[in-house]
Design goal:
The complex is a heterodimer of chains A (about 700) and B (about 180). Chain A is mainly alpha-helical. Chain A is built from 28 helices and 7 strands. Chain A is globular and about 90 Å long. Classes of the chains: A mainly alpha (about 700), B mainly alpha (about 180).
Chain lengths: ~700, ~180
């Protein structure tokens, strides 16, 4: 390690610039992949033909690729880059271990590559933003630990007694993400590529959205606030507006955020008390979030005149403003009555994009334009191109958000329009074809954003190319002195990194335990007469369900008839918590590109599904659903079924020994029945043992428990 | 700005000001907390679950409707002869039914509508209404209840009556029982 001491008690050291450089480069490359995937799937919703006839090109499989690459590859690599770059400077020490940095960097890229391979192949857990299967989950945990050791190692070796606010945010993020990832990923493997989560139904949904929303919180928000607290004052060269505000909004955010997950499950079968907690904590989150926005914007006082000229400042102002906007929209959408309209619509899609494209994206661009010339010791190739990038990205986002607002509200209003007990638009496709033109606008908006991004890539490529090799800079600082008690209040705490960490852990654990624990125990308290009717899936239905998960049907279909009259009128009997007790994983879904499927069983004859899955437009003109010809070619994997039942049984699904040992033949028998029924309805093709039979069996099984009859 | 106090802490050159929390921001935070507690406590005293309330609201809506079911029960449900109703029935038939029963009612997958043979009942209004509402899933005829309103079903059933005695281009062989 390059360290030395001089006579005046100063230590001399260098920073590791290679690791941040690598992460910044990875950010740039994966960002392009994430955006390209986004523009592509946005186009698929406008032009179904783009699903082609290739299984790995269908929307259901590519959407997880888009979300995962945007969050974990683009935003993730940027976090690591920024955290390593800024923490070294804020803590006045080199990254803890070069070896761990290598493991972290290459491990993370490996995870991304594995994700990019497995997701299109349909290897998925079916839980949003946690789709990666268990071996990759373990790898993520390992790499994250490497990151954490590197980070806390820096804190241990720091030469700066008091932790700056950016470090608080990094610290809270690293701890909480580890907690979220591990708890949500607990699963029992069936094979190398398939596992079932230990949680079922409503429990699984709660754990998943506790994870899902806090991925937004502790992956896309708190690390970025940390980055803002470093790069914004650096770029504008002004002091932070209010230290006190930093303190209050930090602790408020960390404590409150963790409770908000249930706002993804409003009006669902989740118990009312948990839903209401999700709503009120979301409302209480508004001020703490805005605390960050205010501190960012007011720090820019005195620099406003520079915004007109300097692209970095433009991106910063816009990023912080988008942060403020989406953290206003979030609480708004969490109000139950607003959520009833907006949930399952494109409004939510618009909301997340103002967050990710606006807040995270613009923050990343600002940091890149600021840091690349610094790290590579050169000047930005073209300020003009950076300005062009800004305006293209801005127009792109605005088109995106406005079209999604319009689409979401239009479709939401059409879904809820009722005359007496009847729906005004009972035909689901009618509500879909209405908003298709807005999908063109959205895809175009995304394309503009991507085009601006490509310009940035070019600009940065040219910048780096012009760089000249330089000697690493040597920094000096006195070693960390003894802890003294002369500072009061929060500054005092900032000197005690271990205590600080413990307090953060407590802050995030409280809400987690209060919400999750009762729900985990709830299964024990369901009235026996209510669960009596609930039967586990037959082996064939389970095979069908896993096809449903593999194809990502949940990206377009919900399975949750909400406690709302218009949901009941459209789909049938409302969903009850008890009916999901054997659902590992839950499949409530989050967006209704197509209709809810919770009650589709028995609605149509088997042949309807047969023709519909082969070519949806043959049955429903105007549909945008992909075609699934491969389900008519591939054979059902009967052999794994006994193993699947066994794993389910271990998690408490009441399969008998006998049903496990006859799983394969039971499945074959039921498949033969479906085949028979298709034949009697005029299907002429050979369908013996084809996957479509299992899928039909599963779809026909989706009904209120009382209506499920023994097969 | 000039008289703002700069704290003596320095983080890689970044300074912090000692400004107080903006008052409006603090009030916003207080109000949101007070509202939230009030809302939560109030919600604990409602005494019904969201599911109960939705069920009740649905029942109330259903209670308001003068349905064909009620007309059937009181024995005055009949085919409509109103031209407007028949026109709308025709439109529904063409878009929804013709793919299986042929545009002229001659039958394709589904049975012939023009002859005197009926599989379900005797070709009365109530019989046809029942089939459209409930469907015959095992034969591929879906239930139209979730898709068509009561009025629309009445209209299309009334339109079916107009096929009686017409001669379709490719009549499907009779199915069911002859009704004299």
């Amino acid at each position: 390690m390059s360290q030395s001491k001089s006579k005046d008690n100063l230590e001399h050291f260098t920073y590791d610039e290679e690791t941040p450089k690598l992460f910044f480069l990875a950010t740039i490359i994966w960002g392009a992949v994430a955006l390209l995937a986004g523009v592509f799937i946005a186009s698929q919703l406008a032009f179904w033909q783009l699903n082609f006839k290739l299984p790995w090109f269908t929307f259901g499989r590519l959407r997880p690729l888009h979300t995962n690459s945007a969050i974990f590859a683009f935003a993730g690599n940027a976090i690591f880059a920024g955290v390593y770059h800024s923490s070294q400077r804020l803590l006045k020490t080199r990254i803890f271990s070069d070896a761990l940095s290598k493991i972290h960097f290459w491990g993370w890229q490996l995870i991304i590559v594995l994700a990019a391979i497995t997701l299109p192949l349909g290897i998925t857990t079916g839980k949003e933003y946690a789709e990666l299967e268990w071996p990759i989950d373990i790898l993520i945990a390992v790499v994250w630990v490497a990151f954490a050791v590197n980070f806390f190692g820096m804190i241990a070796r720091r030469r700066e007694r008091h932790l700056y606010v950016a470090i608080w945010f990094y610290l809270a993020s690293i701890i909480t993400v580890a907690l979220l990832h591990i708890v949500n990923s607990i699963a029992l493997p069936v094979s190398l590529f398939k596992s079932y989560p230990v949680y079922a139904g409503v429990q699984d949904a709660l754990v998943q959205w506790w994870y899902g929303h806090n991925a937004v919180a502790f992956f896309l928000t708190t690390p970025y606030l940390g980055l803002m607290y470093y790069y914004l004052p650096k770029a504008v060269n002004r002091p932070i507006y209010s230290y006190r505000l930093s303190i209050i909004h930090f602790w408020a955010l960390v404590f409150i955020y963790i409770w908000t997950g249930p706002h993804h499950l409003l009006h669902s079968a989740l118990p009312d008390w948990a839903q209401t907690l999700g709503m009120i904590f979301s409302i209480m989150l508004l001020a703490p979030s805005w605390g960050g926005m205010i501190n960012g914007l007011l720090t820019m006082r005195g620099a406003w005149h520079r915004v007109r000229k300097e692209p970095i400042l433009k991106f910063l102002v816009a990023a912080v403003t988008f942060y403020g906007m989406s953290t206003f929209e979030g609480p708004l959408l969490s109000i139950k009555s607003v959520n009833a309209l907006a949930h399952f619509t494109d409004w939510i899609i618009g909301h997340v994009h103002s967050g990710v494209l606006g807040w995270n994206g613009f923050m990343i661009f600002a940091i890149l334009y600021y840091v690349v010339p610094k790290l590579w010791k050169t000047e930005l190739y073209s300020e003009k191109l950076a300005n062009v990038h800004f305006w293209m990205a801005m127009s792109g986002i605005l088109l995106y958000i406005f079209s999604m607002w319009a689409a979401g509200i239009t479709q939401g209003l059409m879904w809820r329009a009722m005359e007496g007990p009847r729906l005004v638009y009972p035909d689901f496709v009618e509500t879909l074809t209405k908003i298709i033109p807005l999908y063109y606008v959205r895809a175009f908006g995304g394309f503009l954003y991507l085009a601006g991004y490509v310009i940035m890539m070019y600009n940065i490529f040219k910048t780096i190319k012009a760089s000249k090799p330089a000697e690493p800079e040597v920094y000096s600082a006195p070693p960390l002195g003894k802890f003294t008690t002369d500072k009061q209040g929060h500054r005092y705490l900032e000197g005690l990194s271990a205590l600080f960490t413990v307090l953060v852990v407590i802050a995030v654990i409280v809400g987690s335990v209060i919400e999750i624990l009762p729900t985990l125990l709830a299964h024990k308290y369901y009235a026996p007469e209510k669960i009596e009717n609930v039967k586990p899936y037959t082996p064939l239905e389970l095979a069908g369900r896993d096809i449903y998960i593999r194809e990502g049907c949940y990206t377009c279909h919900s399975q949750m008839v909400r406690t709302l009259t218009y949901d009941i009128a459209r789909y049938g009997e409302m969903s009850r918590p008890e009916e999901f007790i054997y659902d590992h994983p839950f499949q409530f879904g989050s967006r209704r590109i197509g209709p809810d499927l919770a009650r589709v069983g028995g609605k149509y004859p088997d042949s309807w599904h047969y023709y519909h899955m082969y070519d949806p437009r043959q049955i429903t003109p105007g549909s945008t659903m992909p075609v699934y010809p491969h389900l008519f070619r591939k054979k059902i994997d009967y052999h794994i079924l006994a193993k699947k039942l066994l794993v389910m049984k271990r998690m408490g699904v009441p399969y008998s020994e006998a049903s496990i040992s006859s799983a394969i033949s039971d499945a074959q028998d039921q498949a033969a029945q479906v085949e028979e029924s298709l034949k009697s309805q005029g299907v002429k093709e050979k369908v013996r043992d084809k996957e479509i039979l299992a899928l039909i069996a599963y779809l026909q099984r989706l009904k209120a428990p009382a209506e499920v009859t023994d097969k | 700005m000039a008289d703002e106090k700069v704290l003596d802490h320095d983080a890689d050159g970044i300074k912090e000001l000692d400004n107080p929390l903006p008052a409006w921001w603090l009030y916003l935070f207080y109000v949101s907390i007070i509202f939230s507690f009030y809302y939560y406590v109030a919600s604990m005293f409602i005494g019904t679950t969201a599911a109960d309330r939705a069920q009740a609201a649905m029942a109330k809506l259903q209670g308001q409707e003068q349905t064909v079911e009620m007309m059937l029960a009181s024995g005055n449900a009949e085919f409509s002869k109103d031209e407007m109703v028949l026109a709308s029935g025709k439109e529904i038939y063409t878009t929804r039914c013709a793919s299986c029963h042929a545009a002229d009612g001659g039958g394709l997958v589904g049975p012939n509508m023009t002859d005197n043979y009926w599989i379900h009942g005797r070709g009365e209004f109530a019989d046809m209404y029942r089939v459209v509402v409930e469907g015959v899933p095992e034969k591929g005829m879906i239930s139209w209840k979730p898709i068509l309103s009561d009025d629309e079903i009445r209209a299309v059933v009334s339109y079916l009556k107009t096929f009686e005695g017409t001669t379709p281009a490719n009549p499907k062989a009779p199915e069911g029982n002859l009704v004299e």
